Amino acid sequence: MKTLTSKILSAVLTGALALGIAGCAQPAASNDNGLKTVEAGKLTMATNAFFPPYEYYEGEDIVGIDAEIAQAVADKLGLELVIEDTEFDSIIVGVQSGKYDIGCAGMTITEERLQSVNFTQPYATGIQSVIVPEDSEITDVDTLLAGDYIVGVQTGTTGDIYMTDDIGEARVDRYQKGNDAIVALTSGKVDAVVIDNEPAKAFVAANEGLKILDTAYAEEEYAMCLNKDNEELLNAINQALDELKKDGTIDAIVAKYIPAEG
Ligand code: ARG
């Protein structure tokens, strides 16, 4: 039975916990370059590494466009890059609570996310594509939206958010990994998958009998997200990205993973 004292105690504890979380929202360690990071000398990046060609495993290593761009940024800041793989929908929370310095995960800048985190300047563009079985009667986005089709998405992604807005919870099936949504599609559990175009191409290449619709669902910009309390780090990363854009490093990294078509 809950007594009044235990209720008061738990309220006090909850308050203390909330304060504790807010308290560690400030990045802890200072570095020689004057920047504050979660751990001294390190740039801790959160990603969800099942998203080729932006991040994926090659043996034990996480490689891809995001991993290489973050590495180039860390080099410029004189920090060691540490990549942590986590669920996509815990990246922003972890950045807010001071667990990670940056989230770098093919993450789209959205108004809603900007309420919780800062974003750097964009370093890439993305498109939300629709994947269907080759013989599907879904021929374009309008058909998909109008019918009573079930759509698979990765939890917490823009594909999830936009689809839920457009067709409602009941028609959206959420999966922790993009590839799990693809498995649901090949086994006929869902009628289509909405996901970013480059991972979509990789998934279609790796699975027989799937295709990407010609019409895109949404266009987006990818950037790194940071804790709102660390503007110095935001400015330093933006400056590094400026330099890496100007000297062609970013273009070269993207071209390495996404060969020009034609
Ligand atoms: N661009 C989409 C978003 O920001 C999907 C990103 C998913 N990234 C990942 N590494 N799984 O919501």
> What is the rounded Rg?
20 Å
Shape: elongated
CATH homologous superfamily descriptor of the largest domain: Periplasmic binding protein-like II
Amount of beta strand: 15-25%
Number of domains: 2
> How many DSSP E strands?
16
Low-pLDDT windows of residues: 12-24
Secondary-structure-derived class: alpha/beta
Tell me the distance between the termini: 71 Å
Properties at a glance:
D-Maltodextrin-Binding Protein, domain 2, 10 helices, 262 residues, six-stranded mixed sheet, five-stranded mixed sheet, alpha/beta, single chain, 16 strands, binds arginine, elongated, 2 domains
Short note summarizing the structure:
The protein is α/β, with parallel strands linked by helices and 262 residues long. 39% of the residues lie in helices and 24% in strands. The chain folds into two domains: 2-123 and 223-257, 3-Layer(aba) Sandwich (D-Maltodextrin-Binding Protein, domain 2); 126-219, 3-Layer(aba) Sandwich (D-Maltodextrin-Binding Protein, domain 2).
Structural notes for this entry:
With 262 residues, this protein is α/β, with parallel strands linked by helices. It folds into 2 domains: 2-123 and 223-257, 3-Layer(aba) Sandwich (D-Maltodextrin-Binding Protein, domain 2); 126-219, D-Maltodextrin-Binding Protein, domain 2 (3-Layer(aba) Sandwich), CATH 3.40.190.10. It is 39% helix and 24% strand. It has 10 helices and 16 strands. The chain has helices at residues 4-23, 65-77, 91-96, 111-114, 141-146, 158-167, 178-186, 197-206, 231-246, 249-257; strands at residues 29-30, 36-37, 42-47, 50-51, 55-58, 61-63, 80-85, 102-103, 118-119, 124-133, 151-154, 172-175, 192-196, 210-212, 218-222, 225-226. The strands form 4 sheets. Strands 10, 11, 12, 13, 14 and 15 form a 6-stranded mixed β-sheet that branches. A 5-stranded mixed β-sheet has the order 7-3-8-16-9. A hairpin with a 2-residue loop joins strand 5 (55-58) and strand 6 (61-63). The structure holds arginine. Arginine binds next to loops.
